[in-house]
Amino acid sequence: MDLGLAHRTALVCASTQGIGEAIASALAAEGARTVVSGRRGARAKEIAARLPHAIGVESDLSAPQGPEELFRATVDAFGPPDVLVLNGPGPRPGQAADLTADDVDSAVRTTVLPHIRLISLALPAMRARGWGRILAVGSSGIAAPLANLALSNLGRAGLAGYLKTLAAEVAADGVTVNLLLPGRIRTDRTAAIDAANAERTHRTVTEVERASVASIPAGRYGHPAEFGATAAFLCSAPASYVTGVALRCDGGLVRSL
């Protein structure tokens, strides 16, 4: 299938490892001019050097002008993005009963506000040309809130509500807005969550992982490349009638439809 991404410009946030790197690689393989970004500028450039038509940009979206600087670097290199992939590290683990007002403020500032700012920058050009793809990497916690990840559940659900509202507003302009929700994908973030759960429950990491795998119908953690391929389709031309969707890529982990 031709995904229709050749010569499109794709900006992928937080793409220096794990899921983000896999998405950037999948889009670049389909011919998109890809911006790899993240706080580790050298790593971003290293990844970009392995991809066709890609650049690496050091970017901290939580910095006061972080979204604007990343958007400007994209425009300077390739023009306004046709594809915007929103991604970023999740807040620290923790229980809902322990949250403070400062914790909630921090979660919103890291998981919601930078992404909305990037959308506000990229959306006008997408609407003007009648084609655009906005895809946010969320969490299965949006569908079924995850234990000990109260801040992530809170922040990602807030962003999901905004994106669902936006999807209806821009659909007639040829812009799709979707979420892709990972389950247990084998990344550094998943490893950190497993380690935190092991410490909290006084088990070994191996025991935690074994229990996690047992809850997944597919019987394993997912591979980043599988997630990246799914993301590339949602960003594609053939997916032009898919919008306002939160699609899970989780091996059947969440049992609801």
CATH class of the largest domain: Alpha Beta
Average pLDDT number: 95
* Total number of beta strands: 7
What is the string of SSEs from the N terminus onward?
A: EHEHEHEHHEHEHHHE
CATH architecture annotation of the largest domain: 3-Layer(aba) Sandwich
Give an overview in words:
There is one protein chain. With 257 residues, the chain is α/β, with parallel strands linked by helices. It folds into 2 domains: 9-183 and 227-243, Rossmann fold (3-Layer(aba) Sandwich); 187-221, no CATH class. The protein is built from 9 helices and 7 strands. The chain has a 7-stranded parallel β-sheet with strand order 3-2-1-4-5-6-7, with helices on both faces. Strand 2, helix 2 (41-49) and strand 3 (54-58) form a beta-alpha-beta unit. The longest helix is centred in the middle third of the chain and has 21 residues, at 150-170.
Write the layout of secondary structure elements.
Elements: E1 9-12, H1 18-29, E2 33-38, H2 41-49, E3 54-58, H3 66-78, E4 83-86, H4 101-111, H5 113-129, E5 132-137, H6 150-170, E6 175-182, H7 188-201, H8 205-214, H9 224-234, E7 246-249
Helix pairs in contact: 1-9, 3-5, 4-6, 7-8
